[in-house]
Amino acid sequence: MSLVRWKVFNVAVFLAISTMMLSIVKAQDAQPMNEITLGSGSGTVSSGGADSLASNGDSLAVIDGDGGTTTTAPAGTAGPEAIAFDGTYVWVAMQFSNSVTRVRVRDGLVSGTFNVGKRPVALLYAASGIWVANLLSNNVMKLDPATGGLLGTYPAGDGPGGLAFDGANIWVANRNSNNVTKLSGKTGGSLGTFAVGKRPIGLAFAGGSVWVANNFSKTVTRLSTAGAVLGTYPVGRGAFGVAAQGENVWITNYFDKTVTKLRAADGVNLGTFKVGDGAAGLAFDGTNMWIVCNGDSTLMKVSPSTGTVLATYATGKGPFSVAFDGTKVWVPNFASNSVSTTAAN
Length: 345
Hints:
This protein is mainly β. The protein folds into 2 domains: 1-30; 33-343, Methylamine Dehydrogenase, Chain H (7 Propeller), CATH 2.130.10. Helices cover 8% and strands 47% of the residues. The protein has 1 helix and 28 strands. The protein has one helix at residues 3-29; strands at 34-37, 80-85, 89-94, 99-104, 110-115, 120-126, 129-134, 139-143, 150-155, 160-165, 169-174, 179-184, 190-195, 200-206, 209-214, 219-223, 229-234, 239-245, 248-253, 258-263, 269-274, 279-284, 289-293, 298-302, 309-314, 323-324, 328-333, 338-343. The longest helix has 27 residues, at 3-29. The protein starts with a helix and ends with a strand.
């Protein structure tokens, strides 16, 4: 072997070993979380084509034309996907069993499972109720947090899959009809439907505006509470989750492995920061940002001022969302039928 070829071979081996070692170090460095088992389901998820959901519309993950990955769940999974905290319990949307499960945060006790519509994929605690977006039922349900009883069912658009509260009203992202619906927080009645970008998923209320992550448009739309478009701002590929952080709003970019920080007052980009693979749900605990990385099955604690990853936690398989209960963070594991939790600080 020539000297040049030998050097090239050595460099290639070194790079391969280095990459492998980085993966090992990353796995070892991920801190453990407590894991609570939830109920099982009977759904099966199959792969879809480019720019689509899984072929039966089950998975919130996107398969894009640029070779992005998706999360699949094995037969028997209930698909724990979305989560919300009501002050006593965390509620978990069990997508493939068409139900929500309640877990008491004080001790992790599973405290009931309640039937909802078809494919629940988003949850919100607001206006004295647990609001559930049912992707394939094209509606939103409101449950009584004390009993799990149904308080109302309200029509939404095609494929409701994101929820937010502006202090008075509920906003619903309709991913298939490329619009958002505004519902009265008191009555559930429709107060209007407003066009946004392609495949809206994430929603948040920040800086007096409603922010909408447009998953297929690589943008986020800013709406007034009256539904007027105040601005559309570029973000990364696969814009997914949105969360308010003081005077700023954060958006995860699923396929870019990044999170973007915008100034809520005017949409000015304050930075884009590297996180893990499949950046999905996120939450602010009053001090730090928490970002779920679906592809890595990790949860990252991020400094809101610098975008630096402060810690990485190992979750169950394929998480999509995260909630903060005032003390701990909670992550439902889409492909593990479980919820993971750890102290926030």
